[in-house]
Specification:
Layout lengths: L15 H12 L4 H14 L2 H19 L2 H11 L3 H6 L1 H7 L10 H7 L2 H9 L1 H28 L16 H10 L7 H20 L3 H37 L44
Amino acid sequence: MSLRTYRPPWVDSVDIGDEIRMMRAWWGQPHRLRRAASAYQRLLAVAPAAIAYAFTLFVTWWTLRGASDIVGRRLILSASTNLRNMQRDPIQVLLASAFWTDGGFPWGDILTLLTVMALAERWLGSLRWILVVAAGHIGATLLTVSAISHAVARDMIPFRVTVASDVGPSYGISAMLAVMAYRLRGRVRLIYAVGLLIWYGFALWSGPTFTDYGHLLALFIGFAVGGLAVLFSRRLLAWRNSAARTGPTAERAAVPSDPGDGVESAAVPLEEPDGRLDHSGGDRAQYGHN
């Protein structure tokens, strides 16, 4: 795909009213269950990253399920992005922590990946989806660990926080949920964004943990990444439209198609006669027919 025809997905927003009307029309048609299954199958077909992420979470959960409590706890702690692990091997724990979950079967994370996150991947594409999730996970983790280090150094929080477990895809999912605000159009976008802030803010207010702070930071990272991507995409389209108006395409009518024939690119229609050959002497040298 060339730059002339490329359209960034960041500027493709949808009107929620139109979507609801389409859904109502779709619901009124026969064979709803069959068509819903077919539509979901097509969705998963264009969301390989979300499927792979969900499958990896299932595999790691199954690994913990088959291990003893002591071994499972050691695996979780070794992959946690706590302060001690980040000081020892930050790259390894940043990557590993995103693919482990602490507790029972990660129903919520897997269902979110196979529905909402799959829709986001269909909108953005797999590469952009991965970059947004990685930015949310890595950015929120680094900011949270830096805040913990600062607080521990000043005896603001207990030292045991430095070895606490912190794993899971929640930071990346939170960033993607924030980015999806730019998929909406008009007032609904503002309502959705405010709703996310209230939801995460209430969790932080009701029982604040460093993980809740990380979720809120990931949300802000998602808003920032989405806003910058939309701004850059709009400027790219504006530059392309400006170049199209002033570039070679706009001047094509004034440029001869062949310097030797003297005929401009704005050619005379075929059914219109050539004036140089419609009168006697039209084949003389001054008419270019040597």
